[in-house]
Write a structure and sequence with these properties.
7 helices, 2 strands, globular
C-alpha cells in the first residue's frame, strides 16, 4: 500500500498485517498485533504528518519500535511533539470525563450560551485486569503522555475562564 505525502509516494509495508477480520477477538489478542492501528491512535490523528520529514514518516510507518535497534522514543518523539502543538493550537477541546466543564468551556471559548444543559452522563470505570492495563498503557505510551498534557491544558483553560471544576466521586 502506498501513502502520498507532499507529492512523495511512501510505501507502507506493515499495513496489510492488520487488515484481518477482528470479530470475536479477545482484548489480549488484539493488543498482541504487532502493527495494531489502535496503538497511539490519538497521537497519530492529532499529529500533522505534512510537518514531518518524509523520510521520517516512511521510516515510522515501516519500523516497529525495537526493530533494528530503534527505540520507541526515537521513532515517536516528533509525532508526540507535533500532536501536542496541534492540540494547544485548537480553540477548543473537551475531556469525556469532564462533560459539564467541557460544555462550559465551549460556551466561554466561543462566547455563546446553550439554551439548556443536558443531563450529562459521566463515564464509569470498567474493571480490567492490571496486567492488561499495564500492557495497554505501554502500547499507548504516546497517547498516555498526550492525555496528561491535554488534561493540564484543559485545566489551564478552565482557570483562564474562571470555571470551577466539579468534584467527581
Amino acid at each position: 500500500m502506498y501513502v502520498h505525502l507532499r507529492g512523495a509516494q511512501l510505501q507502507y509495508k506493515r499495513l496489510p498485517l492488520f487488515l484481518a477480520d477482528w470479530h470475536n477477538v479477545s482484548l489480549s489478542d488484539f493488543m498482541n498485533c504487532s502493527s495494531n492501528p489502535a496503538n497511539n491512535r490519538q497521537t497519530r490523528m492529532l499529529a500533522n504528518l505534512t510537518k514531518l520529514d518524509c523520510g521520517y514518516v516512511e521510516y515510522w510507518m515501516n519500523t516497529a519500535p525495537g526493530e533494528n535497534g530503534t527505540s520507541t522514543d526515537v521513532l515517536h518523539h516528533p509525532l508526540l511533539n507535533n500532536a501536542m502543538r496541534n492540540l494547544q493550537a485548537m480553540a477548543f477541546f473537551g475531556l469525556t470525563e469532564y462533560p459539564a466543564e467541557s460544555s462550559r468551556l465551549f460556551e466561554k471559548t466561543f462566547d455563546i450560551s446553550f439554551k439548556t444543559h443536558q443531563n450529562l452522563a459521566y463515564t464509569r470505570a470498567v474493571a480490567i485486569d492490571s496486567t492488561i492495563q499495564r500492557k495497554a498503557a505501554e502500547l499507548n505510551k504516546l497517547d498516555v503522555e498526550l492525555y496528561e498534557f491535554a488534561k493540564l491544558l484543559f485545566f489551564q483553560r478552565l482557570k483562564y475562564f474562571n470555571i470551577t471544576p466539579l468534584s467527581y466521586i
